[in-house]
Amino acid sequence: TQLLEQSPQFLSIQEGENLTVYCNSSSVFSSLQWYRQEPGEGPVLLVTVVTGGEVKKLKRLTFQFGDARKDSSLHITAAQPGDTGLYLCAGTFSTSGSRLTFGEGTQLTVNP
Amino acid sequence: KAGVTQTPRYLIKTRGQQVTLSCSPISGHRSVSWYQQTPGQGLQFLFEYFSETQRNKGNFPGRFSGRQFSNSRSEMNVSTLELGDSALYLCASSPGPMNTEAFFGQGTRLTVV
């Protein structure tokens, strides 16, 4: 059984600050996705990474995939109140096909 | 292009009853997966369907079942409801089983009383 560890679990920061969220597994990911979820809604896909060492940028969000494909990070620059939400990493593994295994999530609150 | 549609959005049921939830995937998507989300357990995989066949199943009791129709729409059923089944049930669609990007619906909030 593959497990994903996501940290931190909670993060409360002021507008304009930077932050990083981490996602780790003891197994090699086939692919990894980051999602953002707001209360009462489904997760919204932000990015998919599949290649070790890959870096993707989405406006103020930067996603990195570890060289060994066992870890990933999400960095937000100059956070805004609109970034508030639950950030989830989810991975697929070679032994489980397209089934997504989710981390526990990071609840981010950006205070104005 | 319409997104993933789940109905109903909210549902209240009594212990022992059964419930059926519906999911219409994005047009052209043929793979549908179901997840249960609870505060204590997070998002957990229930099952995946492609071409009307269950391809993958999570660690849930047999009370949880699903099916997929020829138009790719999917339903999941929970029988003999328990209080612990209260959760947000999420459906995700993707183009096919080899595509790992999943697009989620808004979910069905099930409350068992």
Provide a compact summary of the structure.
Chain A is mostly beta strands and 112 residues long.
Features:
heterodimer; A: 112 residues; six-stranded mixed sheet; five-stranded antiparallel sheet; 0% helix; globular; B: 113 residues; mainly beta; seven-stranded mixed sheet; four-stranded antiparallel sheet; 11 strands
How would you characterize this protein structure?
- The complex is a heterodimer of chains A (112) and B (113).
- Chain A has 112 residues and is mainly β.
- Chain A is built from no helices and eleven strands.
- Chain A is globular.
- Chain A has strands spanning 4-7, 10-14, 19-25, 31-37, 44-49, 55-58, 61-65, 71-76, 85-92, 101-102, 106-111.
- In chain A, strands 2, 4, 5, 9, 10 and 11 form a six-stranded mixed sheet that branches. A five-stranded antiparallel sheet of chain A has the order 1-3-8-7-6, with no helix packed on it.
- Chain B has strands at 5-7, 10-13, 19-24, 31-38, 42-50, 53-57, 64-68, 74-78, 87-94, 103-104, 108-112.
- Chain B is globular and about 35 Å long.
- The N and C termini of chain B lie far apart (37 Å).
- The chains are: A mainly beta (112), B mainly beta (113).
- Chains A and B meet through strand 4, strand 5, strand 9 and strand 10 of A and strand 4, strand 5, strand 9 and strand 10 of B.
